[in-house]
Write a structure and sequence with these properties.
371 residues, alpha+beta, DNA Polymerase III, Chain A, domain 2, 8-stranded antiparallel β-sheet, 17% helix
Length: 371
């Protein structure tokens, strides 16, 4: 029996955008550029994999007239459904082709035999490591992933460390110049778990988060991590191979003896950093921060461009005067992911790392630059 299903255009477009993010962009294996559609049990199941990461998503806002399967290129299917202006889209398989009908438009996309699609494993509840709300998980991912390395020769730091100790979960990322650690509580009955998750997989978690209260169950087994999003409007299963290698001993990087501390309003500091960085370039990507008893002066200078000077009043700076330089982009990156209105900056010396804290759940270590 051939697949025939009527879908809500918006819901289908969103689902395709999410699932298509998994497919391989460059591969000699054509089926890895495809999405597999399966109509059964009154639902449309969408699945894709690049060989390392897989995503399976269920769509409820459909009418399945006929159960069946289809395997078609993700890019064309996603583009076509996105451009369809009609509120409903009908998908109907014919052999290895898929007919797409919406209003006054009809498309026929050639695909492959669904039997050629790689088999994807489901979620194994017996290997659950922990459970937490998707909103908390998404926040932890946002607060760590931005600091991960990209295509670094030390492959382990291209991913993010998943570090669970009891009911406390931490995500840690570093690129060698900065380190971000996001923490949160979770439900777990086992003692410890540690592994490294690829950045691509973590980026998908944010897409799947949905309602902040949606429960997410995380399982780790056989060099893979699998996340089950129990969204009542459409459960999703994300599975990824883990990054091989040893993550750096991050605990050793976090300073413990900072003797100069100052509390900032997040938005005030973000504005000052943004203004001070206006006259920087790739060759002089630094902002000098001069801390005195009651004032912070931020300066930047770029040859042939000019210089910037920004002043901020300090109400509770404790410590001797200090001048230190930081890459303003790295500070701005951290401030973007902080929800709290106040942050604490801790310092030691001009040649020592700076430390930004927000509440009890975010710690950010930042190496200084020469000024």
């Amino acid at each position: 029996m051939a697949l025939k299903v009527v879908c809500d255009q918006g819901a289908l477009s969103d689902a395709l955008n999410t699932v298509s993010a998994v497919v391989a962009s460059r591969t000699p294996t054509p089926v890895l550029t495809c999405i597999k559609l399966t109509g059964s049990d009154g639902r449309l199941h969408l699945a894709a994999t690049d060989g390392e990461i897989s995503l399976q998503l269920q769509l409820d806002r459909v009418e399945v007239d006929s159960d069946g399967e289809s395997l078609v290129p993700a890019d064309k299917l996603t583009q076509i459904v996105r451009e369809c202006g009609d509120p409903t889209v009908t998908l109907e398989a014919e052999g290895h082709a898929l007919h797409i009908n919406a209003g006054d438009s009809h498309f026929k996309v050639y695909g492959f035999d669904p039997a050629e699609a790689p088999a994807l494993e489901g979620f194994d509840a017996s290997t659950i490591d922990c459970e937490l709300p998707s909103g908390r998980l998404s926040t932890m991912v946002s607060r760590s992933l931005f600091a991960a390395a990209v295509e670094h020769t030390r492959y382990a730091i291209n991913g993010v460390l998943y570090d669970r100790d009891g009911k406390r979960l931490r995500f840690v990322a570093t690129d060698g110049r900065r380190l971000a650690m996001a923490s949160g509580d979770c439900k777990s009955s086992s003692a410890q778990q540690q592994c490294i998750i690829p950045g691509k997989a973590l980026g998908l978690i944010r897409r799947l988060a949905g309602s902040p209260d949606t429960p997410v169950r995380i399982a780790v087994a056989d060099a893979r991590i699998t996340l089950q999003f129990d969204d009542p409007d459409g459960p999703a299963t994300l599975s990824s191979s883990l990054v091989e290698g040893r993550f750096p001993p991050f605990e050793d990087v976090i300073p413990r003896d900072q003797d100069k501390k100052v509390v900032f309003d997040r938005d005030t500091l973000r504005s000052a950093i943004r203004r001070a960085s206006l006259l920087t370039n790739e060759e002089s990507r630094s902002v000098r921060m001069k801390f005195e008893e009651s004032r912070l002066t931020l300066t930047s200078h770029a040859p042939e461009m000019g210089e910037a000077v920004v002043h901020l009043e300090l109400k509770d700076y404790g410590g001797d005067a200090l001048e230190i330089g930081f890459n303003p982009t790295y500070i701005a990156d951290a401030l973007k992911v902080i929800d709290e209105s106040e942050i604490t900056l801790e310092l030691k010396a001009a040649n020592k790392p700076g430390l930004i804290r927000a509440g009890r759940d975010f710690t950010y270590v930042l190496m200084p630059v020469n000024v």
